[in-house]
Amino acid sequence: MRRLLALASALVVLASIAGPVAARDFGAVYVDDLRYRVFGNAANVPDGTGTDPFAKFTNSTNTSQLGVAEFAPGSPTGHHGGRWAVYRATWVDPADASTLITSWDSLVAHADAGDLTLVRDEAADFRCPVLGDPEPIG
User: Fold this and answer.
1) Cα separation of 86 and 19, whole Å?
2) Dihedral of the alpha carbons of 128, 129, 130, 132, in degrees to the nearest 10
3) Which one, of 32, 70, 68, 36, lies nearest residue 51 by Cα?
4) Any bridge partners for residue 55, and if so which?
5) Which of 65, 78, 111, 134 has the smallest set of CB atoms within 10 Å of its CB?
6) What digits encode the pLDDT tens for the residues 23-32?
7) Which of residues 41 and 53 earns the better pLDDT score?
8) Nearest to 121 by CA among 65, 35, 58
9) 121 exposure class (CB count in 10 Å sphere: 0-12, 13-18, 19+)
10) Cβ(102)–Cβ(33) under 8 Å?
11) What's the Cα-to-Cα distance from 62 to each of 28, 38, 121, 122, 138, rounded to whole Å?
12) How confident is the model at residue 135 (pLDDT cuts 50, 70, 90)?
């Protein structure tokens, strides 16, 4: 009986450790022409309180297109640990939708040129920490 109780206790401890690790949802984001890994976090971010600009494309046809953020770890200023202020990026001309955007500066340049629109979506703000050690694109 003691062995069964000890085994059950060990399984509960193992599940409590493995569960949170398995619950992390890893993905990636582009920042300054580099690809950073990110992981989902269940933190509450009230609508409109995001601080770091992050764009999600609504109509990109490029299968390599990820979200684009302005800041990442090591940015000289502005990085707040992945508390994202979400913008929806939409290509105006569907013929441009295959263009790959990998930096915030490029995104803003396309918006300034009228190639795409950037619309703030405060209800979509979220927290998703960015991990260091970025990978080059390509």
Assistant:
1) 28
2) -160
3) 70
4) 68, 87
5) 78
6) 455 789 999 9
7) 53
8) 58
9) middle
10) yes
11) 15, 20, 22, 25, 14
12) confident
